[in-house]
Every structure is written in structure tokens, then in C-alpha cells.
Amino acid sequence: MPARILELAGADIHIFATPEDACRAAAAEVARAIDAAKKARGRAVLGLATGRTPVPLYERLVAMHKERALSFTGTSTYNLDEYYPISPADPRSYRSYMDQHLCRHVDLAPNRTHVLDGTVPEAFAAEHAALYDRMIAAEGGLDFQLLGIGRNGHIGFNEPTQMPVDEALKLPTRLVVLHPVTLADAAAEFPAAADIPTRALTLGVAPILAARSILVLAFGPKKAEPLARALTGPMTAELPASLLQSAAGRVTCMVDEAAAGGLE
Length: 264
Ligand code: F6R
Hints:
This protein is of the alpha/beta class and 264 residues long. The protein contains eight helices and eleven strands.
């Protein structure tokens, strides 16, 4: 149970004592989303995130699966992003992350767990990204999108830019250059600075915001400022998480007290 619930910019904010408490509630939300989508249209399509934030969520989903309280049959997943270039076999790839934290432990069919391909030749990257968007559309769109939030306010790897809001809202899946703050955070996973990929493939702002429901997780004091700006400031491409305001009514944030520090 959240300690408190707020409503800001059309999003429900559930504030929990700890990330583990939030992730228990988030796992229940994922299970509900799968169930509702399968009842409504015979399949469930989930957009998933990587990073430190959702680790306890995946632990909980795996535990629920082992307790036979959750099945992923009839479910497809599409991950938000992947470093570029990177081999899926590289332990730092997001494909490896998903395998380690979720896929190998549950009944997700391997051909239904989609991660953008960090080995695609650059000449085909745009085509590969466009195909990813078309595959999601062909499955009827995302029923549920899980998001973390970057210290610089990025969602997926849609990094801060100067473009007008209406252009940013239309951004498709594509190859991007990573922002210095993102590269600084990636240094934890890539101890040799020269190994940090400077680019990535990311799901676009448009397909993210088109999801029928969006769950944002944010934990710890470093997320307080971007979260508060996203929910209480103006919509701006300089803080991509603020673009979530255009999905008002479909966004839930599950946060801990530290990340909620700037909201009240
Ligand atoms: C990950 C992703 C990123 C992260 C964000 C927060 O797939 O798309 O936007 O959600 O960088 O990362 P953590 O959770 O490591 O703080």
C-alpha cells in the first residue's frame, strides 16, 4: 500500500516507504495489465525498461511466476532501448540484462521478447528502428509501458533537446547520441571509459506516449529534481519526462519518499 497518493499533471503519484514496497505494487500492476489486455484482446504487449530502478520489480515478477501467480503466455515484450553498437551477448547489453533479470526465469517465448539490435549495420539502423515501431503497431500497440527516468529527465534514451514540444512528441524509434549525463551514469557498467557506447537505439517518444497505460518508477534523491520538474513544470523537450503530461490520465508514478522529495 502506498503511504500517500497525489495527483499532478494528470498522473497518479503513489509514494511508498521503500523501492521494494513500490516494486511489489508495480508487479501487481504488471500482472493486472497482462490480465486485462488478454481479456480485452487476447494478447498483452508490454514495453519494458532496464537500469537499476526496475531490478526489484523483475525479482518480484520472477517470484510471482515461481509461485504460479503469474504467467507470460500470450504476452510479447518490447524493450525501450539498447546501446549501439553492442553485441546481444555482451553482459552489459540490455538484451543480456533482460535475460538475466526476467526472460530466462519465466515462460516468455524467446521469439516474443524484443530488444532493439545493437549489431545492426548503421546503414540499416533507421530501417530497423522503423520496423520496431511497425511491429508494435501490428500487435495493436503497447498495452503497458514501464519507464524509469534519467537524472537528465530522459525517458528511454530520448535525451534532452532544444526542439519544439510538438516535434518532440512525434519522435519515432531511432538511433541517438547519448547525453553526457547518461554517459556518466553508464560509467558504472563500463569501467573503461573508452568502452562506453556513445550512441543507442531508443523507442521514440511517440510510441512510448501511445501506450494504453504508463508506469514510471523513480527511486532515490537523484530522481527528485527531474521528477518534480516533469510533473510540476512546463512541457519541454529539454526535459523529455515532462512530455508525459501529454498522456494525462494514463500515467501512474510509483516512487519512494526520497524521489518524491520535490513534489510537496
Ligand atoms: C532504461 C532506460 C532509461 C532508464 C533511466 C534510469 O531502459 O530507458 O531511461 O530508465 O536511465 O536508469 P536507472 O534506473 O539505472 O536510474
